[in-house]
Amino acid sequence: SEKKYLKKKENMGKACILLFCLISMVWTAKDDFSTIDKLRNDLYQLEDAPITYHVTYDTVGRTFDDEIYRNVIKTYDDFGKRIDAESPTIGNRHLNSLNSLWLWARVQSEMRSLDGLYQTFRQKLHDITQKGHQLNMQQWADFADVILTDPNVAVPDTLKRVSDIIIEQNLFVAAYQ
């Protein structure tokens, strides 16, 4: 049980990085590749920063060093604010020709699911860094588990479904027919 909990915690960082990268990349890639590429590279560097995974665990008291986690959370909250400030405005003005396609409706549905997870993640960051909410590692581990493995909303599964619609079902080819 303890090993499983620690594994979930380890996956939390990966899920956070994946979610940030995914949302910024998918929603804005069509508008400005250079900005997105820079943010993505900066995110990779942030992932490799020593503080990200330098966490201590007290096996006697069964407690984590909250200050380290708070620093990591603040780092990702600041990066999220940077994404908001630097990324192009989210919009569908360039994709209006797809509105009549049922495949596009499916993609939009999947994207709303991803955006919902992202907004939940950002709100959790904000609540801890700005409102001083208590750091509940079990909630973070559970959220990471949902992001990575829930059959209905897991980010990897959602991206696979979007990819299948765009590539396998020829979404953009259908737009020209």
Automatic annotation (TrEMBL):
Name of the protein: Uncharacterized protein
Provenance organism: Bracon brevicornis
